[in-house]
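Reviewer 2 asked us to include a model.

Predict the structure of this chain.
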Amino acid sequence: MTIEYLTLAVYFGFLLVLGAVFARFNKNLSDFSRGGSRLTWWMVGMSNLMAGISAFTFTGNGSSAFEAGPSMLIIYLANVLGHLAGCLYLAHRFRQTRAYTTADIKRERFGVGAEQFGAWMGLFLGPMAAAIQLWALAVFVSTVFGFSITLTIVAIGVITVFYSSSGGAWAVVATDFVQGVILFGITVLVAALAYVAIGGWAGFVAGWAEPRVAADFAFFKNPGRFSGDRYTWEWAGVIFIMQFMAQINLGAAGRYLAVKDGREARRAALFSMVLMAIGTAVWFFPPMVARMIYETQVMESGIKDPATTAYAVVAKNLLPNGLMGVLIAAMFAATMSSMDSGLNAQTSTVVRNLLPRLRSALGLAPLREEGQLRLCRAVSVALGAVIIIYALLLSLQEKIVLFDAYLTINSVLGVPMGLPLLVGLLFRRLPAWSYFVIIAGALIPSIYSLVQQSLGGEAWTIQRRGFWVLVYGFAATVLALCLERLGSDASRGRVREFFQKMDTPVDFAREIGDANDKTQAVLLGRSVAAMGGLMFGFLFMPNPAAGRWQIGALAGFTLLVGLGLWLYGARPKRGAG
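Predicted model (structure tokens):
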């Protein structure tokens, strides 16, 4: 494991340096929270994708692909279509809210009460969700690769907190981009090797037709075949709706606040869509191949849920010597990119939306820009410490099932909290007070299902709970629409102003100022090229000729991406002479 440790040490050191480099871009809260709305579409597009995946993509969802074939791809189809909707209809309007945080958007659409409630709930749920992801990653790499759970949690947490707190949104998006290039490079290589190992498309189709695989790999399963009636058409329908809703509500607006204007936001959404489509094609092919040719190895991996090792088993069998460390780094990258985006968003919300209210209530003067930046860094460190502590506590208990924890929180609280942010976008007539009415209505099935289960009743499936949450939530929406006339004229006027602003294009030169696209391209181009150059060092590892070609292909891909960006950034502007 020496080479893996060395690879990770170099990789993490590189991220810390990158975070320090981009820290110099921070001058005020706008820079820290949204990159001053000067980030390029290709950086934001990659960061949006990376923020939406984690080690769970390759473990939890990978296990679903191993056990049930393509059924769980319905989740990623919803993601792709959600990004497409962003490109065509929503992304530019989200950017045109001109907000710093999603809490700002809640305030302007639904009022101060919604802003404060959403911000405090996010402060509670955000660190817990990040802790579950960190814990899941630590358990997986500990079991499969022999890393210490405690050391993994602390190391990943500290490194993520360091570059997030020092560099803010600039560092978060920059490191996400570098990590995304590495992740795509190594996962495309694993998929290509799996394709060769199974004997190409003909071999894959033949493996699918085997009796031990065919029934499980049907897209829609019969009820009872899998626990919780997963992968039935009812499950697929509800999961698709829930996932698609999460992609198109006002809560998703935070993805696009960092780009320069509406056109850049659309480009970022399109880039995210293309990357998600590619990722969907390559991330879940290897676990399905594992079911066909490595099933025995997977099931004998010795862990409680052996299917979660399917992706790692394929990689261990097929990758040349040296590249396993790169794959481990990619898995770390997937989780770190989710953590850093969430940490930056929560920090910005605390400093922008929560603490000013508290200071005002205490009669304290607003902080100046320098004080806000210092506070951002302090809050990032504090929240990071909370995430690490939560993850360590989770690692010490045995009652909570690893990958069920996050799904339960999302189905019980995530959908009810997100529903008013969707219908409040679709129905402009909805009054501001409807935010709490809709959440209350949607929470009724969630609370009932938990109470029933705690009293010894039947546990609800995710699709059953999700269906009734949507029914009650939309019923509350209809009620609020019928009672819209009870709202005040002042409240209706604020809502109209909000939507008018959403429909007004951003004048970047007047509202923001000068762009620095070339500087971003040069810095990231050098960084990615350096990573590609370092990867060529794996050519010195003992490997057959085919393995050396595979290493060269991965290193060359990374190097070419970096050089392309570098040359683009170094190219003089048109008309310069």
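The mean pLDDT is 90. The two ends are 54 Å apart (CA to CA). We have added this to the supplementary material.
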